[in-house]
Structure to design on (472 residues):
C-alpha cells in the first residue's frame, strides 16, 4: 500500500472512511460498478462472522470475492486472508486472476503486487491461495483478523470445513454455485450461524434493466437460451440460473451420491476402484444424435470397461460431421464397437458408419421397443435400470471426465424418474415426452451412457468385434 504524498492524518481519515463503508472503499480503488447483491456480500462479510452465498452463473461472484479480499486487507491491519477451492485451477485461474487484475487496475496506488496465488505485505499481513487437495495446507494460519474465503464451496468436503472452523477465523465467506443438495455448503443455508445470500441470474438481469448494463454480467438472452437448452424445471437451470440447489426427488431413478462417488473413482465402500487396463477391456464409442436445427445436443462418449474417459455434447452439427467425429474417436482408441440410437435421426447412421468401415450396434430406445426381459416395459427402461444398479453398487469410474461434462451428465442422470409399474407389473421409467412435459430437455448424455451399457452387454453376449461383422 502506498501513501504517495498524502499527509499521515489524511491517510488516517481515508482509512477511517474505508472502515466505515466497504462501498466507499471499493470506489476508492475501482471504477467498476457494483450491483446490489455484490454490495450486500461486501456488507455481510463486514457484519457477520459467517456468510454463505449461492448464485447462478455470470453474476459477478468471482469479482466480488476478489473485492472482499482487498476490502479485508485494507481495513484490517495486520490481517491474513486464506482463499481455497476444491481444485488448483479454481484457485489460480479464476479467483486469483480477478485479484491480480483488481490490483493492476487500482486507482489507489499499491506498491506490493500479488504473485500467482499470494500477496504479501509482511509476515503478519498477507493473502494466500491454496487448494484443498492437501488438507495439511490449511494448518498454521492464525491471526486476530483471519478471513477464510471458500470458493465454489459445494466441492469442499466436510473434513476441510471442520479444519477451517478449527482455525477460529474472524470471518468466513463461502461462495459458489449450489451444485449439491446435501453437504456443508447446503447445510449452511439452514443454519442460524450463517448469514445467507442467494443471487439468481434473473435478479441480476432485472437490476441491470433498471440501473444500466454492467459489461460481462449475465443477459436475458442467455437466460432464454439456457431455458431452451435445459428446460426451466431442470436441475441444471435451477442451479446455474436460479442459484438454488437441486431438489431431492423421491421418484428419481439415480441418487446423486452414487454419481458423485463414481466421480471420485470409489466403490460402494468408498475405497478406490481397481484401475482398469484399457487394452484388456471392451472399448466402446456411444452417441445420441440430435438435429442441427434444434436445441438438443449430440452426445458422444468413450469408455473402456467401466471407466468413462470422455462424454461431450455438440450442438447444431450435421450428421456428416458427427459421423466423422465418431469415426475419429473410434480409430484413435481402437474401439471394439460404436453404439447409437437407431430411431429417428439415428436411423441412417449405421449405413453411414458402414461406408467408413466402422462397425455399429443399433439401439432402439422407443417406448414400444421390447425389452430382453419380461420384467421391464421396454429396452430403454431395462438398460437404465442396469445403469442405476451399477452406479448404486459403485462399479463405474467417472474420474477422467471433464468437470463441466460430468456435471451435465450428473444432472441428466439424476433427473430421470421411475414411473409406477405398468398393468403387467413391469418396471418402467418416464419417456422423453414425460420429461419435456415437466420442463426437462432430452437427457442426451445420460442416454449416451445408457446405450454404452447396452453395447457392453452385447459384447459379452456375442462377438461384436470388427472382424466378426465383416468390417475388417
Amino acid at each position: 500500500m502506498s501513501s504517495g504524498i498524502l499527509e499521515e492524518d489524511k491517510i488516517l481519515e481515508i482509512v477511517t472512511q474505508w472502515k466505515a463503508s466497504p462501498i466507499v472503499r471499493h470506489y476508492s480503488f475501482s471504477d467498476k460498478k457494483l450491483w446490489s447483491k455484490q454490495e450486500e456480500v461486501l456488507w455481510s462479510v463486514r457484519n457477520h462472522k459467517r456468510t454463505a452465498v449461492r448464485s447462478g452463473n455470470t453474476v459477478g461472484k468471482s469479482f466480488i470475492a476478489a473485492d472482499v479480499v482487498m476490502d479485508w486487507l485494507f481495513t484490517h491491519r495486520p490481517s491474513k486472508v486464506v482463499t481455497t477451492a476444491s481444485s488448483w485451477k479454481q484457485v489460480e485461474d479464476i479467483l486469483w486472476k480477478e485479484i491480480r487484475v483488481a490490483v493492476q487496475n487500482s486507482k489507489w496506488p499499491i506498491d506490493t503486487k500479488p504473485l500467482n496465488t499470494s500477496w504479501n505485505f509482511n509476515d503478519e499481513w498477507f493473502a494466500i491461495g491454496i487448494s484443498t487437495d492437501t488438507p495439511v495446507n490449511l494448518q498454521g494460519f492464525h491471526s486476530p483478523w483471519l478471513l477464510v474465503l471458500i470458493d465454489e464451496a459445494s466441492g469442499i468436503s466436510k473434513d476441510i470445513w471442520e479444519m477451517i472452523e478449527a482455525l477460529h477465523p474472524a470471518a468466513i465467506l463461502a461462495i459458489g454455485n449450489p451444485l449439491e443438495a446435501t453437504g456443508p455448503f447446503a447445510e449452511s443455508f439452514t443454519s442460524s450461524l450463517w448469514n445467507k445470500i442467494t443471487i439468481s441470474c434473473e435478479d441480476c438481469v432485472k437490476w441491470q434493466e433498471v440501473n444500466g448494463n454492467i459489461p460481462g454480467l449475465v443477459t436475458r438472452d442467455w437466460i432464454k437460451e439456457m431455458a431452451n437448452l435445459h428446460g426451466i424445471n431442470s436441475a441444471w437451470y435451477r442451479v446455474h440460473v436460479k442459484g438454488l440447489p437441486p431438489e431431492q426427488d423421491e421418484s428419481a431413478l439415480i441418487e446423486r451420491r452414487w454419481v458423485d462417488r463414481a466421480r471420485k473413482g470409489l466403490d460402494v465402500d468408498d475405497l478406490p476402484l481397481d484401475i482398469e487396463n484399457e487394452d484388456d477391456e471392451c472399448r466402446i464409442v456411444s452417441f445420441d444424435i440430435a438435429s442441427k436445427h434444434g436445441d438438443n445436443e449430440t452426445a458422444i462418449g468413450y469408455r473402456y470397461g467401466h471407466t468413462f474417459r470422455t462424454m461431450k455434447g455438440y450442438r447444431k452439427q450435421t450428421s456428416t460431421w458427427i459421423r466423422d467425429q465418431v469415426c475419429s474417436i473410434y480409430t484413435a482408441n481402437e474401439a471394439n464397437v460404436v453404439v447409437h440410437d437407431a430411431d429417428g435421426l439415428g436411423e441412417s447412421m449405421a449405413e453411414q458408419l458402414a461406408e467408413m468401415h466402422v462397425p455399429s450396434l443399433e439401439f432402439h430406445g422407443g417406448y414400444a421397443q421390447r425389452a430382453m426381459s419380461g420384467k421391464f416395459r421396454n429396452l430403454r427402461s431395462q438398460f437404465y435400470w442396469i445403469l442405476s444398479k451399477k452406479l448404486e453398487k459403485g462399479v463405474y469410474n467417472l474420474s477422467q471426465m471433464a468437470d463441466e461434462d460430468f456435471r451435465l451428465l450428473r444432472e441428466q442422470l439424476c433427473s430421470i424418474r421411475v414411473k409406477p409399474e405398468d398393468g403387467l407389473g413391469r418396471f418402467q421409467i418416464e419417456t422423453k415426452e414425460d420429461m419435456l412435459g415437466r420442463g426437462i430437455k432430452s437427457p442426451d448424455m445420460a442416454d449416451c451412457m445408457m446405450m454404452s451399457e447396452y453395447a457392453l452387454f452385447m459384447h459379452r453376449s456375442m462377438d461384436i468385434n470388427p472382424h466378426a461383422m465383416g468390417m475388417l
Remarks:
- The radius of gyration is 26 Å.
- Residues 8-222 form a domain with the Rossmann fold fold (CATH 3.40.50.300).
